TrEMBL record:
Limits of the Aminoacyl-transfer RNA synthetases class-II family profile domain: 181-495
Annotated InterPro entries: Aa-tRNA-synt_II, aa-tRNA-synth_II, aa-tRNA-synth_II/BPL/LPL, Lys-tRNA-ligase_II, Lys-tRNA-ligase_II_N, Lys-tRNA-synth_II_C, NA-bd_OB-fold, NA-bd_OB_tRNA
Domain of life: Bacteria
EC number(s) reported in the record: 6.1.1.6
Organism in which the protein naturally occurs: Maribacter litoralis
Name of protein: Lysine--tRNA ligase
Single GO MF annotation: lysine-tRNA ligase activity
Residue stretches in coiled coil: none
Length: 563
């Protein structure tokens, strides 16, 4: 492992601390009794406090020093005075440990008394400090120049998402996002618990990936010697619980879909699903309006939320637009009752890429998604989806070609999906069989037939309404974040590229190639100014690591960089 100069210096300090008999990573409990926030909100001059946190800045002026300590609630100023800390003749603790062996980023414990500085800053007078954890890597802290301009901010998304632990330390607003996320999930729980609904847990590993149309992740259970899937939805298990006699159940579930990644999709995501007996999708729309009003108030103190350039109003009521009407409004085409071949040609005329594996449901979904969805910025219920799009949904009471389903659109994206649930086991079997035909045509997102779920329905499921709400997208809206990576602590990332490990000879050759990209081999050798032996080792090394290739053009050998 190659270490930077600063990392080497910090490791030297670590050893010096140990030589002084100071354990840089003590095991004993540290008796914290205050936080930076509690000190400021309940300030009492002269009060004795014990706090712990990360040293984030300091200004050493001889035998005194002001510093900032950051804990989980914020920052507090602390004042180190040599004579307060070292009351005897031995000044090592201040002169050596504090001034020379502590670094920004170290975690320390402080015991001291509160006082207010001449400029009115609430501060802790340090009486004793304890090393709790030595930081071996420097924090990427932003800096300000004389004009107050900030630079060297830790704002590269690749680094921030990969090193979220650093992001949380140096970018306080990031922590605020995740605190608000917890407020949102707590608000939902409170809303449903007050109605008497039961929070439950259902399997993540499933023999059949049911409840949605999506491509699953496949794994294998060694002891049972069977394939298993990471769940794409928890719907069918929650409905089994309604069959079993619960009137209302909900679950915050981690779902997994083996599909593309972008600013609004992560392969692992969180969904809240609710199922309530003796209700329908009209009731669910009313209930969802009340829920979102409450969430907005609990998270932000208002029902009006700023999202990008838009102000979104979550106060009820929301518009309700049938999906076929929405397509007609935004494309001028009436697709109601249109046969599959004609619908496919219509989609092509609208400029959409379609193929023969796509049935009526997928074609309508594609048209709506590309031509209509982005128009619905304010919360809007898109309702009454064709039966082909909704294999788990009850047939519409007024039109057998449609189903009692809605999707809630906000800021041009789907936030929730809900049904009057299909509870006719014979109809459900036929719908599954239609999905099987789509699978045979090559649709790898078509639903599997879940025989056990059909058996459950045959015992009788009461009329039920269900909804799934995407928690990640909900948090994006409530925190004004455009990327799903901003609301996930640890979003999925591509494998981290390993730093190049080059010998001195390889580095000389590679540095020349980085500038020139492509050179005649003899010119490169001359320019490298290496001996024959060093050249041979160097060029073999970079070609073996596939950093460059050697090839012939006519009678001349060339070297070209590959990375």
């Amino acid at each position: 492992m190659q270490l930077s100069e600063q990392e080497l210096i910090r490791r030297e300090k670590l050893e010096k601390l140990r030589a002084l008999g100071i354990n840089p990573y003590p095991a004993a409990l540290y008796p914290v009794n205050s936080t930076s926030e509690s000190i400021k909100s309940d300030y009492e001059e002269g009060k004795q406090v014990i706090v712990a946190g990360r040293l984030m800045s300091r200004r050493i002026q001889g035998k005194a020093s002001f510093a900032e300590l950051q804990d989980s609630t914020g920052r507090i100023q602390v004042y180190f005075n040599r004579d307060e800390i070292c009351t005897g003749d031995d000044k090592t603790l201040y002169n050596d440990v504090y001034k020379k062996l502590l670094d920004i980023g170290d975690i320390i414990g402080i015991e001291g008394d509160l006082f207010t500085t001449q400029v009115g800053e609430k501060t802790i007078m340090v009486k004793k400090f304890t090393m709790l954890s030595k930081s071996l890597r420097p924090l990427p802290l932003p800096k300000k120049d004389a004009e107050g301009k900030v630079y060297d901010e830790f704002n590269d998304p690749e680094l921030r998402y990969r090193q979220r632990y650093v992001d949380l330390v140096v970018n306080p607003k990031v922590k605020e996002t995740f605190i608000k996320r917890t407020k949102i999930t707590n608000s939902i729980r409170e809303f449903y618990n007050d109605k008497g609904y039961l929070e439950v847990e259902t399997p993540i590993l499933q023999p059949i990936p049911g409840g949605a149309t999506a491509r699953p992740f496949l794994t294998h259970h060694n002891a049972l010697n069977i394939p298993l899937y990471l769940r794409i939805a928890n719907e069918l298990y929650l409905k089994r619980l309604i069959v079993g006699g619960f009137d209302g159940v909900y679950e915050f579930s981690k779902d997994f879909r083996n599909e593309g990644m972008d600013r609004t999709h992560n392969p692992e995501f969180t969904v809240m699903e609710l199922y309530v007996a003796y209700k329908d999708y009209n009731w669910m729309m009313d209930t969802t309006e009340k829920l979102l009003e409450k969430i907005a108030m609990d998270a932000n103190g208002t029902t009006k939320i700023t999202v990008g350039d838009h102000e979104i109003e979550f106060k009820a009521p929301y518009a309700r637009v049938p999906i076929l009407e929405a397509i007609k409004i935004h494309t001028g085409v009436d697709v109601a009752g249109m046969p599959e071949d004609e619908l496919r040609e219509t989609a092509k005329k609208l400029g959409l890429e379609v193929d023969e594996t796509m049935g009526i449901g997928k074609l309508i979904d594609e048209i709506f998604g590309e031509k209509c969805e982005h128009h619905y910025v304010q919360p809007t219920f898109i309702t009454d989806y064709p039966k082909e799009m909704s294999p788990l949904t009850k047939e519409h009471r007024d039109n057998p070609a449609l189903t009692e389903r809605f999707e809630l659109m906000v800021n041009g994206k789907e936030l929730a999906n809900a049904y009057s649930e299909l509870n006719d086991p014979i109809d459900q079997r036929e719908r599954f069989e239609e999905q099987l035909k789509l699978s045979e045509k090559g649709d790898d997102e078509a639903m599997f037939i879940d025989q056990d779920f059909l058996r459950a329905l045959e015992y009788g499921m009461p009329p039920t309404s269900g909804i799934g709400i995407g928690i990640d997208r909900l948090v994006m809206l409530m925190t004004n974040n455009a990327s799903i990576q901003e609301v996930l602590f640890f979003p999925q990332m591509r494998p981290e590229k390993k730093p190049l490990q080059l010998s001195d000879n390889e580095k000389v050759i590679f540095d020349i190639l980085k500038t020139e990209k492509k050179m005649e081999l003899t010119v490169l050798k001359t320019k490298s100014d290496l001996s024959n032996k060093a050249w041979d080792k160097g060029i073999k090394g970079i070609t073996k690591q596939q950093l460059a290739k050697i090839y012939r053009e006519e009678d001349v050998l060339f070297v070209e960089i590959l990375k």
